[in-house]
Each structure stands twice: as C-alpha cells, then as structure tokens.
C-alpha cells in the first residue's frame, strides 16, 4: 500500500502538473472569461444606451438577458462536440464571437443589439461543453478540481475587467457604450491565436475507434509509459452519444442534481451582475461610480472561489455544496430583509453571498464533467447549462421589472428562496466524487480501487 501511495499507477490520472496542463487551463478559461466580460459589460453600457435607444423595462430586460438566451441555444451544441470532436469546435466558436462583437459597434436599434447578443451567447454557450470537456479529459484527478475551478475564476475575472473597462470608457462620451460592447473582440482574437494547435482529446479519439491517434496524443503528453488501458472504459459500461442517455436509469438523478443546483446558483447571480449598477443605486451604495462597486462585488466572487478550490478537495464536493448554499441563503435574506440598511448589513449580505458562492460556481462545470462519461460529457455540460440558463434568463429579464414594481427588498427575498432550493437539492441529491478517476466518477467503476490515497472510501452514490 505504501508503494502504491507514492508511485503513480496510472500515468494519465496520476500525472504531475505540467506546462501543457497550465496552457490548456488558460486557453480553456478563455470562454468563461469572455462570458463574464460579455454579460457584465452590458451592465455599464445599459446606463448609456437605454436613453439613446429609448429602451423601456421590457427591452432593457431583453437586452440584459439576450446573451443568456444565446447561451441556452449554444449549450445544445454540446451534442455536436461529442459527435465531431472537441478540437474542431474549439476555435470556430470564437470566430463567430469576434464578428458579433465588432458588429455591436454599428447597431442603431434595440432589436439589432438583441440579435447580436443572442449570437454572442450562442458562441459562448457552445464553448462551455467544448472547452470544459477537453480540459477535463486531460486533467489528472488530483488537479481536476483546480483546473476546472480556474475556468470559473476566469469568469469572474472577465466580469471584473468588464466593469472596470466600462467605467473607464464612460468619459469618452455618449457613444462610449459602442466601444464597451465591441471591446470583447480583443480578447477573442487573442484566444483564437492561442488555441491553434491544441490536441484532440485522446478519450474522445478512443471512443471514436481512432486508437492509434489516441495513443499518439497520450504519449506526446504523458510520456512513453502511457497506454490506452489507462483511459479505456469497458464496452459494457459505455454510453451512446444521445440526449436520452442523460435521463436514463443511471444518469437521471445526476442530470437533475446538476441542472437543479446550477439553476439555483445562476438565476440570482446573473441578475445581480447584469444589473449590478442598478442594484447598487437602489441600495444607495457608490451611486455614480457603480461600475467600480460592481467590480468590487465581482472581485468578492473571485475571492470566494479560491478557498472553494481547497475545500472541494479537502472536505469533499457534497459537504462544500451544502454549506455554501446554506450561507448564500443567509446573505440573500439579509439583502431582502434590510433593503434600507444599515450599510454594514447590506455589505455583509453581499459578502456572504459572494464569498460562499465559490463552491457552487466551481461545481457548475466540475460536476457535469465528472458525473458523465466521455460519450455524453459535452452533451451533459450543454444540456445542464441550457436548463440553468432558463432560470438565469428569467431572473435577468424579470429583475428590472421586479425592482420597479416591488422594490429591492421583496426581489432579494425571492432570490433567497431560489438559493434555498439549491440547498435542498444538494442535501438530497449531491454525490461525492472526490479522489475518483474520471472513469470511476462518470461510469461507475469500482471506486475503492480507483480512489487516490487518503480520500474517502465510500463509493460514489447520489444522496446519502
């Protein structure tokens, strides 16, 4: 046992952190970075374009939610990446994003901006299953949480940068919003160039029967000791690339769990980030400089992800998720019960919600990539993302209407109720996958034999 704990038995799953893993993590984080940027830059832009394009509450909500609608559509392309490969779509989707970003500069009507931002959302939504599946299938088990977690941190970095860029561009003049919206093309171009030459997933190649190509990639990345048996899944445990697989007897609870907590986490979150400046004005916090205030809130979300990366590996996925949703609910309750202050209570509410959202935020992409096999991994990421974005669209579209009709307090109480729903879903459905190889977590191999030394001994299961 001592020899087994010190000497890697699987050169793929027990591989050391390498420059390749670092580069792939950075490149794969590009989609989440741009998602955070695109969804957040519009929050500052709306302060200018609302009077210029004569937006009422309906159009304001539609434009705020437009990228989320696109992400819902783009997420359905996860099936495409399972059928035709991760690498092919890895770059194509960003080309679409660059073109749509630039065209936003030239819009003159609300519907034009709405259509372009739906297209942007499609590109970003397609990248979720593409990039996270590729990253997961190269990630060693000890570093899987870290690598997927970095993509989530990239989302909040993108959001923070967007708020700062928006605030800095405001002095340009009344057309500054055009530069804000078109600016997402800059990181998009950089990421297309960086992603060139990224190898295809050997797990996907093997699943397609392209064993020789899979072995070549494995040995280029992990050395001559790597072989196909280190990633192979027994034929009787394989799933077909089909949407129906996500709802069969084996996977339906996992699909319900991921899409449920995902929705409960992002519905209030995206609404808060998209209309961050409006919310801060309603709370009378940093009025006139709410772009900076939103950047501070977004930075708190980044801060929350850092300890969550450690907790997910130390305490486990399940315990971290339950505790996180419990504290997030308390934070939302404070914002709902004390809409007029005092200021320290409002600050505490934002602080609790932001800092403890790290666990659910990381698990949004870690969970579907761990819980579903290679054949449907991209499909699972895409479908659960789509379902979650229905909630996010509803929250983002309804927020300005709810603020105008009911005020900030009751609106935040609804957010607390949604967050509490996420807590209940985790209590009854959250599995534990800490320390498992990717095959053991997703296909159900013998977890006792596959766990990394020092991790919990119980087998993966849904609920208690």
Entry summary:
It is a multi-pass membrane protein. With 464 residues, the chain is mainly alpha-helical. The chain has 22 helices and no strands.
Task: Please characterize this protein's 3D structure.
The structure is a single chain. This protein is an all-alpha fold. The chain has a single domain, classed as Growth Hormone, Chain: A (Up-down Bundle), CATH 1.20.1250. It is built from 22 helices and no strands. The longest helix has 33 residues. The chain is globular and about 60 Å long. The N terminus and C terminus are likely disordered.
What descriptors fit this protein?
single chain, mainly alpha, Growth Hormone, Chain: A, disordered N terminus
Quote the beta fraction: under 5%
Elements, N to C (H/E) = HHHHHHHHHHHHHHHHHHHHHH
Assembly of the depicted chains: single chain
Poorly predicted regions: 1-6, 445-464
The CATH topology is given as Growth Hormone, Chain: A
Question: How many helical elements?
Answer: 22
Instruction: Supply the helix-strand structural class.
Output: mainly alpha
Main sheet attributes: strand count, strand direction, barrel closure:
none
If you average the pLDDT, what whole number results?
80
Helix percentage range:
over 70%
Instruction: Give the overall shape, derived from the CA principal axes.
Output: globular
Number of individual domains: 1
